[in-house]
Amino acid sequence: TEDYTRSLSYFDKVLKIQKKILSPNHSLLAITNYNIAKALAGLCEYKKSIEYASQAVNIARHTFGSNHENVQLYENYVKKLRRRTLINVVPNGAVYE
Q: Which residues, 6 or more positions from 93, have their beta carbon under 8 angstroms from its beta carbon?
């Protein structure tokens, strides 16, 4: 978890800089949001992770269009995170699919 925490700190700094110098829908913002989502998921902070991954989807969709491979990658990651969130709230650890 220490590596995820350190990574998250760096990605947060990068995102702040990028927001100052890049256009709001620049592809690098999508990548950084996705990386933050991955770090948050590594810390089991799935709800926050979904927020950042969803932001990556929105930016990539605006920049590349809905059929771009990055959009699909980010969308699939959001779905994966939502499944994890559902699994974590099911009582007794039962998994339903």
A: none
* Digit-coded pLDDT (tens) for 41-83: 999 999 999 999 999 999 999 999 999 999 999 999 999 999 9
In this structure, is residue 94 part of a structural domain? no
In a domain, 14, yes or no: yes
Q: Residue 92: which residues within 8 A CB-CB, separation 6 or more? A: none
CB atoms within 10 A of CB 13: 10
Higher-confidence position of 94 and 15? 15
- Percent over 90 (pLDDT), the chain: 84
3-state secondary structure of 93: helix
Domain of residue 80, CATH code: 1.25.40.10
97 within domain boundaries: no
Q: Provide the number of structural domains found in the chain.
A: 1
DSSP-based three-state secondary structure for 66 = coil
> Region 27-54: what's the mean pLDDT?
97
